[in-house]
Amino acid sequence: MPSIISNQQQEQTSIELKRQTQDSNQLLFSPTLLQRLGITSHPSTIRFITLSEDAVLLATASLGYVLVWITATHQPIRRLISPAPTSLLFAPGSKYIIVGSSDGRLEIFDISTARLMKYLKDRGNIGQIVGQIIDPHTNSSSKVASQSSNGEIWSIVLNPDKSRIATGGAGGEINLWNFDQEYDEDEEEEELE
């Protein structure tokens, strides 16, 4: 007898990536689709999605805002207003979320209050200090200047030691940012109160 399946049907699919070794096949990666939720949360296209480090929170970006969800309940807990979000990253500790945008801004939101704490703005064709390059051999650093015609930020990634992020965007530009980096007053940084 056929059964009726809800929109939140659980599916099991697997892909295994193995590496051939002399002794055996070593399993490297085996993702499994656990559940297709079928939840419609945004009136327009979801442009980006990311999970917190502990997978307790999920964030989705759509035109005009970011929603932060609790994964266990599938319920949104915060709506963060961001005009043109294109990329997302939970900062280490998952208390803040970093939003990259199509207008070149990096926005930092406090998740507990939904407050925009700070933003950094790309100044377009003007040369600007955008981050630091760290030499892993000498552990020395130098500031990175950027000159771009289009500051769109389309991707954000956290480095393994969680001390910096890299952003990528239009025009093939890659920028490095330190979490503890101090900026001069003449650089465009806005700290909001």
From TrEMBL:
The keyword Transferase does not apply. It comes from the Eukaryota. Keywords: Repeat, WD repeat. One of its GO terms (biological process) is maturation of SSU-rRNA. One of its GO terms (molecular function) is snoRNA binding. Gene3D superfamilies: YVTN repeat-like/Quinoprotein amine dehydrogenase. InterPro entries: TBC1_cilium_biogenesis (IPR051570), WD40/YVTN_repeat-like_dom_sf (IPR015943), WD40_repeat_dom_sf (IPR036322), WD40_rpt (IPR001680). One of its GO terms (cellular component) is small-subunit processome. It holds the Pfam family WD40. WD repeats lie at residues 146-180. This is Uncharacterized protein. It comes from Streblomastix strix.
